[in-house]
C-alpha cells in the first residue's frame, strides 16, 4: 500500500512538464537578436470592466506584465505570459501579438496536468490570426476531445491578452 502511494505521488510530478524558461520564451516570441522591455500595466476599475467585457473573462489581478520586443527601436511584437489553473493544476502560456496587436502565436510554456489533457501544437497554431471576436470554442475553433478545459483556458488567455492590448496599449504612446 505504501509503495502504491509513493508511486502515485511521484507519478503526479512526472506528468508535469516545463517546456521553456522565460528567456527561451522571449526568444521564441521575438527572436535571438531582439531587445525585450517589460511593461507593468495597472488598469483602472473602468479599464478592468472594459477588458472583462471584451475578453468575456473575469480578471484575477489588476497587474499585467507585457513584454515588448524591439529591433532597432521598432516594435516587432508584444507578448504576455499567462498562468492559470486548467482543471486542478497550473498551465503557463505565452501569448504573442503582432506589432499591430493581432494574435500571432500561443505557446505552452509549462503544463502540469496529465499530458493527454494538453492540446497539441497544431491546435494551438489554429489560434493564430484570429481576432478577439473570432476566438470562441466550438463556434469558430473546434475543441480537442479529452482536452476541453485546456483548449478553453488557451482561448480565454488569448482573449484576455488581446483585450488588455486593446484597452491598455493600443493607441497609447509607447
TrEMBL record:
InterPro entries: FMN-bd (IPR007329), Ion_transpt_RnfG/RsxG (IPR010209). It comes from the Bacteria. Residues 77-165 form the FMN-binding domain. GO terms for biological process: electron transport chain. GO terms for cellular component: plasma membrane. This is FMN-binding protein. Residues 1-17 form the signal peptide. The lineage of its organism: Bacteria, Pseudomonadati, Pseudomonadota, Gammaproteobacteria, Methylococcales. Keywords: Electron transport, Flavoprotein, FMN, Phosphoprotein, Signal, Transport. One of its GO terms (molecular function) is FMN binding.
